[in-house]
């Protein structure tokens, strides 16, 4: 009997789980997916996310059962409204005019749980990959398990770097490149939604460039993300993290805020400072790591989060990777060509999405005017790009 193909996957997040799910149950391939967290440990459980209509559409083409599992665990994302914090409306984007289906609103824990369940036994939890390399034409990974023991997995036919924004595989195999910081701080929190909660579908509220974003997710909770430009050298100080200081950023000169903004500011004030913090950042796109090594998701293209496309593009990546691997396993091509074929199918789309996310960040930069900036987003040029984003998803070969 011929040897089964061995595919190593580093990271059991969005990309890793989906690739493992799509190859589960095959007897011609062994998938070894190494995930550093423990099975029951959730990263970023205290947050939510929206998956763009394009992520749902792509999943329906390639992994329909996973798509329906996520739909069942989420709320539909139908519209995106923009207003000033004093309640002056600026824009309403109705996704049924711009996309072929709604997007999703979901909690991180629910997303992770559903994706990892779909991957089954392929994920080895508590397995930290500490380095990756090439032995001739074959990639290998060095890993450390929970007991502290280290060992090497070699003789891989394909290695997939799905280990996120701080990818060890990328660091091991490619010359390190710089992280581009945008001087905007981002805070996130998840709070309970009482019966009279004024937040439902996806909304944004601006006071100058300071922006609140929020939507409801299942389990009667509201996910909120606040963003504001960082002055000076871009350092986020403890004083800036004070809930009272944060709240003041969103109060307009009139002192009047809409009920939705009041609710969000009360949630921030009541958070006891337990907020998740980040600074906007991105890195160059790298889709090919070496012969037989492919990078996908945040490991390949850590992008600005403005259009909520990080996980969504990771889903698209996983779909195309699966398509290429299935094609090679069916004898239509060689597994060693998967990285180049994947890059050929993804590069243009990723360039478009990363550039579009960067452009859409205009209203969040220091000195930005959200009224003029949002008006530009209602013009045909922006709307047609949104349709391209939400509709032009990868299709099976
Ligand atoms: C709070 C928050 C909110 C977000 N909101 C949105 C949103 O609304 N919409 C959207 O589309 N995107 C959003 N994103 C971005 C999105 O989460 C990422 O783009 C997406 O998760 C990337 O998927 P991935 O599979 O590449 O990496 P991840 O999902 O980050 O998975 C990487 C996995 O690799 C594991 N890992 C890392 N290093 C190693 C190692 N050395 N060895 C073994 N395992 C390793 C990690 O534990 C993790 O499980 C958000 C991100 C965060 C943190």
Spell out the blueprint of helices and strands.
Elements: E1 5-10, H1 14-23, E2 29-34, E3 48-51, H2 53-62, H3 64-72, E4 75-77, E5 79-84, E6 89-94, H4 95-98, E7 103-107, H5 108-119, E8 123-124, E9 127-135, E10 138-145, E11 150-153, E12 158-161, H6 168-173, E13 180-192, E14 203-207, E15 210-217, E16 221-229, H7 243-249, H8 259-269, E17 276-282, E18 288-290, E19 293-295, H9 310-329, H10 338-359, H11 370-377, H12 380-391
Parallel strand pairs: 1-2, 1-12, 2-8, 5-14, 12-19
Antiparallel strand pairs: 3-7, 4-7, 5-6, 9-10, 10-11, 13-16, 13-17, 14-15, 15-16, 18-19
Bound molecules: flavin-adenine dinucleotide (FAD).
